[in-house]
Amino acid sequence: MKRKNILVLLIDSLRADVSFGKQKRTITPFIDTLRNLGVTYTNAFSVATSTTPAVSSIMTGLYPPVHGVAGLMGYKLNKSCHTLAEILRENGYHTYAFVTGPLLTETSLNRGFMEYHYRRNDSVYKSFGEQLSSRLKTMQEPWFCFVHFWEVHTPRQVPFVLNHSDGLTIYEKAVSCLDMWLKENLLNKIDFEDTIVILTADHGEKDSPLNDKLIVSKNFRRLDRFFHIKRRFINFRKKYFINNKKGFLWFNHGYHLYEPLIKIPLIIVAKDKLIKASTRGDIVSQVDIFPTILELVDIKYPFDINGTSIVNEKMQEERGMYLEASNLEANREGSFWLKGVRTPGWKYIVSAYNKHADGELFNLKEDPAESKNLVHKELAIKEKMGKLLKKIEHEMEDLKRDFSSENKMSEEEVKTMEKVLKELGYL
Predict the structure, then answer these.
(1) How many helices (H) and strands (E) does the chain have?
(2) If you average pLDDT over every residue of the chain, what do you get?
(3) How does residue 112 score in pLDDT terms, banded at 50, 70 and 90?
(4) I need a surface site. Which of 225, 250, 280, 413 has the fewest CB within 10 A?
């Protein structure tokens, strides 16, 4: 039987609430079309709030402590991990990737891809858009194609004015513009009869209209080149506001595990496999994407992972999902590295290294904005969530024995990553 093509569209920094829901103000005809054709998982969450660990989890079905990519700097996939591209290629798929940002080949995320196209200083509004549209027509079937979009990430790209976009933030306009491009340039090239389509994100975002305006300002960039304003601001924020990450000085992603940073869209279109125009509200994780894709194309895998297929099975009511925030390097100033666990009703966040730091505990059903830290009040819940986090960590330790080969970057690879991360504004 002919296997279906697989198209994974990952929009960097795309929050769930700008993709669907009551608070949505963005203009998204492409996303709306996918929702009408497939299943929307309204409670999907990233495992990490930075790109490389999150994408590594999508590609392996494993949490970051198992696959080895703990941050943006110095880490690459453990050699013994099995990637989605490798398994699909072994089963007759032709594998293609179009990526940018920190997803260089130095991370080993290119493993299993026949073609791994990394682009620099390009976007769908430039030559990459034409390249992607053209390549989708000529890929050899059955194919697996992973596309990583950067247009919503800072500095956000708003190349044209949309009707009815007055009052939107720059972030919302960037989302709307990219969606319009996808509708006009990609939608008519997808054969939904023969293609499984997945739209998701690596992590969410806390947008700051003031920061977005400054970043795209040529005058600000000139001043920053000489006076290192961004670097000074980051150091100031770390020194004086490290224990108050809810204020206006904290934005973008990577620094914490609050809901806007981890709640992401997940839409799956699979004709004859999933119910059209349906919604599921049970909590799911990025690690579930790997086994879900393989089940949809009837491919077995003889090893254990952290993820669970979400094709038919409803997730356990008290399922706990592992989360972490390390951004650049998990070992650099380790006391700032956070880990946590989320259930349908609660979230518990602790420092990964500093055992003396106060954690955070939120009742998500009564306090979805996470404004009341109950870590000193709900001691029984804190203990229960702490045990759940330890249980997940023990499970990860067991998996590490199967995926034990570390794969550190060489000095030359680290230098390459540093150069790119500086260009992207991370350093």
Answers:
(1) 13, 15
(2) 87
(3) very high
(4) 225
422: left (phi over 0), alpha (psi -120 to 50) or beta: alpha
pLDDT exceeding 70 applies to what percent of the chain? 85
State pLDDT tens for residues 381-405.
999 999 999 999 999 999 988 876 7
Here the tokens at position 137 are: 């027509």
Domains of the chain: 5-207+256-296 (3.40.720.10)
Please answer whether residues 147 and 95 qualify as being in contact, where contact means their C-beta atoms are separated by less than 8 angstroms: no
9 forms beta bridges with: 147, 199
Is the per-residue pLDDT at 220 higher than 80? no
